[in-house]
Amino acid sequence: MKPIALTTPLFYVNGLPHIGSAYPTIAADALARFYRLMGHPTLFVTGTDEHGQKIQRTAEQNNLPPQEHCDRIVTEFHHLWNLLDIQFDRFIRTSDPRHTAITREFFQRVYAKGDIYLDRQQGWYCVACEEFKEERDLLADQHCPTHPNLACEWRDEANYFFRLSRYQEAIAAFHDQHPNFIQPEPRRNEVLKFIDQGLRDFSISRINLTWGIPLPIDPQHTLYVWFDALLGYLTALLDPQAEPTLTNALGHWYPFHVHIIGKDILRFHAVYWVAMLLSADLPLPSRVFGHGLLTRDGIKMGKTLGNVIDPFDLVTRYGADAVRYYFLKEIEFGKDGDFSEDRFVAILNADLANTFGNLLNRTLGMAGKYCQQRVPIPHATALDPTLQPLQTLGSSLGDRTQQHYQNLNFRAACDTILDLIRDCNKMVDETTPWKRFKAGQQEEVDAILYTLLESVRLAAYLLSPIIPNLSREIYRQLGLDFQQSTWQHHQWGTLAPNTVLLSPSPIFQRLDPPSP
RNA sequence: GGCAGCAUAGCUCAGCCGGUUAGAGCGACGGUCUCAUAAUCCGUAGGUCCCCAGUUCAAGUCUGGGUGCUGCUACCA
Prior knowledge:
CATH topology of the domain at 341-490: Isoleucyl-tRNA Synthetase, Domain 1
Radius of gyration: 26 Å
Strand content: 5-15%
CATH superfamily of the domain at 341-490: Isoleucyl-tRNA Synthetase, Domain 1
Oligomer: single chain
Structural class: alpha/beta
Largest sheet: 6 strands, parallel
Number of strands: 16
CATH class of the domain at 341-490: Mainly Alpha
Helix content: 40-55%
Number of helices: 18
Shape: elongated
């Protein structure tokens, strides 16, 4: 099976992890879990980007060495990922010494290509943004528009530049030949138009900044963001004990199957990153997916507004599966979305407690009473015209769901699976097994319950990348061990008759509406 | 300013190549069953499918214009 390597962004450690970090990480984890489900060797890469003046100054403000500041923040990332059941395979930190080796080697390749040169950069520099600003964009007294309370500093300094302009045509040609590289599709046009404008070289170093990776050719300079952070993806591919060389890094998992990122940094992945790899003569990733941004109750989140979503708080109160399900099911990945606690509670109760959880519960209850707590035999009966559609739906569910996962359309995946569950609930009411049991129609009851149990099992299996804990618990109640499942489980008929079932126990308790 | 996209039931959205009474989920209201987590199931929601004009036997679905909203417009991890 084809190896799959995928990434989240490497998150900047200028503060505690927030929902903007958790969101793509949840999605990436779900995708990675799905590929593992299918049996692909899968490498899920995440990590942190730790260099730069902003970090250095933040650390100074806290009277900490930068490395220690980063260590502390990274601990919080690990904590959050643990709470959210994020099963990453690699957590790369750009302060990792191996990363220095990789960036140096990569830099040398690009330098040898003649794509790096020294030039002068002058202008107003916002330390908070860590970037030069155009004069016309500034507010009064050279204050930065994004940081109105901060005055920009005048800088006149030497920077090394990367010859992005040289790759104008190559990048355009690449995107022309790979129309699915940028996803979702609407974002593609933005990038293409940006390229058409004409690409300008960008600076890749800062001078007099100690918290960073020195340039091999000029230690006075340290690498600036893109030639540092993006290369973290490559460093992450190194096996733990391997010598940090590009050859070792790129041997097994490269190239990446997908980079999952926020739409705000799409351009850097679809243009800069592509050009950098072209310059280094390395293969390009298969695609870059730019997800949408989140609002809170319809309002943009911000520290100043004090309306940020605290992922620690959320996952502590509701649990990992609930949080994962809401963000993946209720918000279309790739579009902007909204978080509202009212909706959060409503969706979880409706989908996980009432529709899904309750179906398992009522079905197990009936199996206990009517089938000696065992999986019954799916007899052929007069009810076949009623049950057949569900089996047909279930038989194709794996394939249909797979398409949605691979397109990172988690919402559609959930909807497709829930459709089966909803149909099952209808079928129960239509066939009234309790009446048939009293009437002595045992074979019909068996057929009904087998269809229900198998539907629940199948739904749990296919939903497991999103709600891993609930799926495992459903499997357990069905008398199966999720750990031992294989991709064969996407097929209808996996549940073996006579399997001993457990007594029903709600897998997801209804949530109380949030108090105002 | 320029370019692009979007505008469908209270909410979130489906509606492919134009074609009978415009759909789903959620929420709300009413009812039902009783296997079940006061869950389920059924019914109701009378929606100018943003507005105007046009093409067509026929437009939510195509064309033009208008209004509104959003995104992109270079160094924002």
